[in-house]
């Protein structure tokens, strides 16, 4: 259950997301955290209204062969799966009957780093597929707002939590990770996605 929500209050059965608090064991968290120390994180620059901006976080993309990802105009080639991340992807696929085949890893060095409002609605994502978001490290607020009504929810995502974002979440809602000046610890987030293979190389 969400730890807290903004009004109007709503039961989780009415919304397309599901929070599984403490989904990862502490051993899994430790192994993934250690593995991520070797990830080739980068900070791409995006062009917004003709100006170049470095994104306020670093990221890496791992996926099956042919599952490249076009992110805000940048083509991100799929890197081969690291061991423990691949095992977590298999676990999610088995447990929730999913066909996830790629993961965007976001590293937030501290509370200054963030992600703005968006939906994960890129065309290479399998239509109506689920996105599974796993968090490690510092707990951070995750905000969700409805595109039409503006209805808002806030979920605190803590280390080891799994957030399942099911269809039509990416059609009807946006999400964001706001900055939190007082947080000094790092956070990792893994959004496992299902990509249409070879979408960008037909
Ligand atoms: O870090 C998070 O929890 C959010 C990540 C996110 O919104 C995304 O990868 O699209």
From TrEMBL:
It holds the Pfam family 2OG-FeII_Oxy_2. Residues 99-196 form the Fe2OG dioxygenase domain. Substrate binds at residues 49-51, 69-71, 121. 2-oxoglutarate binds at residues 106, 108, 118, 175, 187, 191, 193. The keyword Metal-binding applies. Keywords: Dioxygenase, DNA damage, DNA repair, Iron, Magnesium, Metal-binding, Oxidoreductase. This is 2OG-Fe(II) oxygenase. It comes from Shewanella mangrovi. The lineage of its organism: Bacteria, Pseudomonadati, Pseudomonadota, Gammaproteobacteria, Alteromonadales.
